[in-house]
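Researcher: Let's try something more involved. This one mixes different molecule types, so please make sure each is placed in the same coordinate frame as the others.
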Amino acid sequence: MPTIDPTAFSAALLAWYDVHHRDLPWRVSPRQRAAGVRADPYRIWLSEIMLQQTTVAAVKAYYAKFLARWPSVADLAAAPEGAVLAEWAGLGYYARARNLHACAKAVEGEHGGRFPETAAALKALPGIGDYTSAAIAAIAFDEPAAVVDGNVERVVTRLQAIDAPLPGAKPLIRNEVAALTPRERPGDFAQAMMDLGATICTPTRPACAICPVRPFCTATKTAEAERYPVKAKKAAVPARRGAAFVAVRGDGAVFLRKRPGSGMLGGMSEPPTTAWSARADGALGEAAAPFAAEWRLVGEIEHTFTHFKLTLDVWHAAVTGDPAIDGWWSGPENITAEALPTVMRKVLKAASIGTAGTDRRAAEPQTKGKRLHGTG
DNA sequence: AAATCGTGGTA
DNA sequence: TTACCAAGATT
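Model: All components are placed in one shared frame. Result:
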C-alpha cells in the first residue's frame, strides 16, 4: 500500500474545502473559524447524533426544531424524555433520542453542564461512540482525532485501493486516517473528508475528474474507484405480520399506549398492537385485540424496517368507555405532537385518523395502505 | 461480535 | 420492485 504524504494531502484537501465546503446550519465555516469563531459543542453534538445513519436533508428540520425548543444542553436535560421522543418522532433509530436525553442529563449532572473536551471522555457518554466522539473532539475542541464515518471509509478505501471487506477493514482504515489527520485544523480536515465523500467521492459515479486529491488516489488510476469499498452482501429481510387496534372515542380521541422503554421503537407511542410474528402467515383476528370492542377490519399497512418487513392488519372500533389497559386518549389537536413513529402514523392513516384538521372522517383518498371493505 | 435498531431517497 | 445507502451505537 503506497504511503501518502500527509502534509501534501491535507493541504490539497483543505484548499478545496475552503472554497467548496457545504454550508450547513450547525457548521462554522472555515472563514468564520479563521476569524476565531468557535463551534458550539452542544450544536455539534446534537447534529452529530441526528446525522448517525441519517441524511443531511432529513436532519435539517429536526435540528432546527430541537435547537429552537432546547437552545442549550441544560434546557434539553431539563425536558421530560417523552417530549424529546415526541420531537424525534419520524427520524428513526429512537435509541438515539433516549441516549441524547441521557447524555444531556449526564453532562449536566456529572460534568457541570459542559461537554468533556477529549474524544476519550466524550466516548464514555451515552450514544457517543468511536465516530461521534472523534468528530466532536476534532470539530469543537481541535483534537486531531481520527474521524471515520461511512464517507471517510469510502474515500480511504479508494485512496489506498483497500480490497479487504468492511467491517473487517475498519482498524486499517482508522490507522490510515490517523496518519493523514493534521495537527492544524483537524476539525476542518474531518469535515472536508466527509464533504468530499458526500459530493465528489460518491458511492456511484464518483467525480474523479474534479477530485482535489486525485493525485493521491490509487483506485482512480485504474478507473476502479466505484469498486470500493468492498462490503459483504446483506441478507434478505424476512417478513413479519401483526395487527393494530385503533379505538376511537366519540370526540375523535384515539387510544394510545407507550411501548416498552427499550427495544424496537422503545419508549414511543402506538395504538395497541399485537406482537409481530416472525411468521408472515399469521392470520390475526379480533381475538388478538387488547380489549373487547366492535372491531372492524379497515385496512392494512406495510412498513420495512432495517431487518424485517412488517404487515399490520388495521382494526378500528368506536369506543365509549375506557379500556382496561394502560394508555391514554389523544385528541385530534394532540395527535401530531405524540411520539408516534412513522409506522404507527401509517396505521392511523389507514384507520382514517387524520393528522391535520379535526374531521377524521374526511373522504381523503387512501394513497398508501390497502383499504379493505369489510362487512359494513 | 454478529445482531439489532428507522426512515426516506434513489438507481 | 428490489437493493442499497445516509456524519453509527449498543449489546
